[in-house]
Design goal:
single chain; about 120 residues; mainly alpha; Rossmann fold; two-stranded parallel sheet; two-stranded antiparallel sheet; 6 helices
């Protein structure tokens, strides 16, 4: 069996919407990031921030399910990462808050792939 050498880029949006807003610009303006195969082939994913003053265990668990779905799609085929996040938040804080949290990140958290605009090679 040939090992799978597929690469992914997983970004944490930090704690402010401005970081989510700048994710696309950061990739566009960083030659090292633009050159990554994962970026060129659209395998860029965003996870919820989880460590600011204290750890957000709900987001850590939700992110783990999402990353599991990316890396082990067959094993996690029954998992809906957004529904699982809300299930976790319901248990921990008493209500499903994923949509409210994700709104601050331009609805890019736990999405199948963040749309990244990469100028054509050679474009300056």
């Amino acid at each position: 069996m040939t090992p799978d050498h597929t690469l992914w880029l997983i970004l944490s949006f930090g704690t402010t919407p401005s970081l989510a807003n700048s994710a696309d610009l950061t990739i566009q303006n960083d030659p090292a990031l633009k050159a990554l195969t994962a970026v060129q082939e659209g395998r860029v994913y965003g996870v919820l921030p989880y460590n600011w003053y204290t750890k957000n265990y709900g987001s850590i668990l939700a992110n783990a399910y999402f990353i599991g779905k990316i890396l082990y799609a067959e094993r996690f085929k029954e998992v809906d990462p957004v529904a699982k996040a809300d299930e976790i938040y319901q248990f921990l804080v008493g209500k499903p808050v994923f949509k409210e949290m994700d709104a601050g990140f331009k609805r890019m958290a736990l999405t199948p792939s963040i749309p990244v605009t990469i100028p054509p090679r050679g474009w300056v």
